[in-house]
Design a protein that fits this description.
96 residues; alpha+beta; two-stranded parallel sheet; 2 strands
């Protein structure tokens, strides 16, 4: 049996934001999930996600007067939030 090819996808958190309205949307992500569904028989996927669409510790954290560690921790929570959104949408559309 031939082994599956591996693909690493780096998604900026902006995949969840409409660039014209700056509101949350899943349009681009759902399109990507459809493409991944077509390839899943022959490919394994790894996904790296960011959270800068929600909070950037070095920018918003500094603007709020947070210490760098606190700002970066909030940024990491934003990444977790995006990860939960993406995980749920992948599972809802039949992907592990």
């Amino acid at each position: 049996m031939k082994s599956k090819k591996k693909i690493l996808i780096k998604l900026t958190g902006r995949i969840l934001v409409d660039q014209s309205s700056q509101e949350f949307t899943t349009h681009h992500l759902l399109d990507l999930i459809r493409q991944m569904n077509r390839l899943e028989k022959t490919h394994h996927f790894g996904i790296v996600i960011g959270g800068g669409n929600i909070f950037r510790g070095s920018q918003q954290g500094t603007a709020l007067g947070l210490t760098p560690p606190a700002g970066h921790q909030v940024g990491m929570l934003a990444t977790i939030m995006n990860g939960l959104i993406i995980t749920d949408l992948l599972q809802t559309h039949g992907m592990d």
